């Protein structure tokens, strides 16, 4: 299980890095989508139930995931999505904090297999 958790967390970090690079290059809709998929839809319900309600992790991230879903939908399906770059940077930063806290919570499970 450690390898799969590490692999998923590494993929999340790659998605967030790609979102930042695309945003820096002037793209706005694809970074919104990548930021959302760094968290993904299945996480919304599971996070709410297991972590937000119990407050094992910050409940504010549950709202951030829900908001990211709406932004991702616009980014993927609107013909001319209107995004504010600063807002996308905030979403990416929030996603990074979320991943950092998830890794801290998972502790040894989040460590790379060779660590």
CATH class: Mainly Alpha
The chain-level mean pLDDT equals 79
Strand count: 0
Architecture (CATH level 2) name: Up-down Bundle
Compute the gyration radius: what is it? 14 Å
Integer tally of domains = 1
Give the number of helices. 5
Note the gap between the termini: 14 Å
Helix content: over 70%
CATH superfamily: Nucleotidyltransferases  domain 2
Assembly context of the chains: single chain
- Kindly estimate the percentage of residues that lie in beta strands according to DSSP: under 5%
> What coarse outline follows from CA principal-axis ratios?
globular
Secondary-structure element sequence? Answer: HHHHH
Structural class: mainly alpha
Largest sheet: none
The CATH topology is: Four Helix Bundle (Hemerythrin (Met), subunit A)
Taking pLDDT < 50 over at least 5 consecutive residues as the criterion, the unreliable ranges are none
Describe the structure.
The protein is mainly α and 115 residues long. Helix content is 73%, strand content 0%. The two termini are 14 Å apart. Helix 1 packs antiparallel against helix 5 (85-106), helix 2 packs parallel to helix 5 (85-106) and helix 4 crosses helix 5. The chain is built from 5 helices and no strands. The chain is globular. It has helices at 2-24, 29-37, 41-52, 60-77, 85-106. The model has no long low-confidence stretch (mean pLDDT 79). The chain has one domain: Up-down Bundle (Four Helix Bundle (Hemerythrin (Met), subunit A)).
